[in-house]
Write a structure and sequence with these properties.
Strand content: 5-15%
Helix content: 25-40%
CATH topology: Rossmann fold
Low-confidence stretches: none
Number of strands: 7
Number of helices: 7
CATH architecture: 3-Layer(aba) Sandwich
Shape: globular
Strand order of the largest sheet: 4-1-5-6-7
Structural class: alpha/beta
Largest sheet: 5 strands, parallel
Number of domains: 1
Length: about 210
Amino acid sequence: MKNILIYGDSNVWGDNFITGCRIPKEKQWVNILRKKLEGQYEIYQEGLPARVAGEEEKEKPHKNGKDTFLAIFRTNAPIDILIIALGTNDLQIKYNRNSKEIIDDLLWYKQIVEEQYSDLEDRKKYFKNEQMPRMICILPPNFDYKEKACAVLNEESEKKRKEIIHYFLTHKEGYETLLFEDAVLLEDGIHFNYEDHQKMADLVEEVLENE
């Protein structure tokens, strides 16, 4: 059985921002995927609301993706497939990040994993002496920057999102990519509704089957 680590933000965690609660476990896309792939994969759900790909969050540094990733990756080792689902929160107006900075942060995950596998003793002990994990990047999905989410994301955020998508679709950089562009979203214009969670599970399953 292969191990999948899904490292992401609130949509991986299953946040219902409207109610202030987590959506039911069986409705979260990671758990829908887990049920669909039962017996084939062990899935580790590592989502955190407001997690950024980089390290620009100063007030709540536990939300910095770079700061916590390596410990989580090694805790769950060996990992056969790594799915990174980050980048949306980095687009928030308050962070004032440009697309290149966010792209570099997303590429960092591949680079840091490569470093772990370059240590032959660690590779033998922690990673079963195997090759690098298959790496999949879920690119930032659509959001409603015009109305519902305009307080945190704006037209410039959307422009940067498009630049990030264009870069990864044209350069690859060792990542397989998944793009979800027709999410219906909850009333906040950012988080997945139940239908979106089902669609995301279906999309990820399709990518995994195309190995």
